[in-house]
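User: tokens in, sequence out, please.
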């Protein structure tokens, strides 16, 4: 290979690297901007006086913010949004629309990409506390079980009183990961705030 070709190849690789870095930076900025918008919307909803708070809905349109999820011990923090398509999961933690909303009874399932918001799940332990803050109440969950399942193991979505979190697995896999990492967490007594959670159906 001639020196001229080597120089052009080096320049090409540098250009490709710069484009990838710019794409990652732009994606990160867009995610942060979306999170600020979601959090501002949630804060407005949470500040409504109890007497004026709407009844907690049984369903939400895709893209509607639900709340913020935190697992303090592993450093996980993100906004939960209704929906599980790429437009949601590329920017937030998604709530699977076919499962109950967090303020309803049942197996409320959340999902996110393993290489983004759910990366800290690799360090989750039994007994860890998950805190979900919504306009219709704040909910604490305690991790009771973790499991690795096949993508078509839909039994994990069966109706139960236990909520779950889903991520692709292995966490360091390049490409479409072959399995799913499941975190089952039991909801603790509700801690309501200004919204009238007791009015939910």
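Assistant: Sequence out:
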């Amino acid at each position: 290979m001639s020196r001229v070709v080597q120089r052009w190849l080096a320049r090409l690789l540098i250009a490709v690297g710069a484009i990838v870095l710019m794409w990652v930076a732009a994606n990160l900025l867009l995610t942060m901007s979306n999170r600020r918008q979601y959090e501002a919307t949630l804060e407005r909803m949470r500040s409504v006086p109890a007497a004026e708070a709407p009844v907690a809905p049984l369903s939400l349109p895709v893209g509607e913010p639900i709340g913020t999820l935190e697992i303090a011990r592993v450093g996980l923090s993100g906004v939960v949004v209704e929906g599980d398509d790429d437009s949601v999961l590329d920017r937030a933690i998604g709530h699977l629309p076919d499962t109950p909303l967090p303020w309803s009874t049942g197996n409320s399932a959340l999902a996110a990409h393993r290489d983004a918001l759910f990366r800290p799940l690799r360090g989750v332990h039994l007994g860890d506390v998950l805190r979900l803050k919504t306009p219709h109440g704040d909910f604490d969950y305690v991790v009771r079980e973790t499991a690795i399942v096949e993508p078509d193991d839909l039994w994990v979505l069966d109706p139960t009183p236990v909520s779950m979190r889903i991520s692709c697995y292995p966490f360091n896999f390049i490409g479409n990961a072959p399995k799913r990492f499941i975190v089952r967490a039991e909801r603790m007594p509700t801690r309501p705030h200004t919204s009238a959670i007791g009015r939910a159906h």
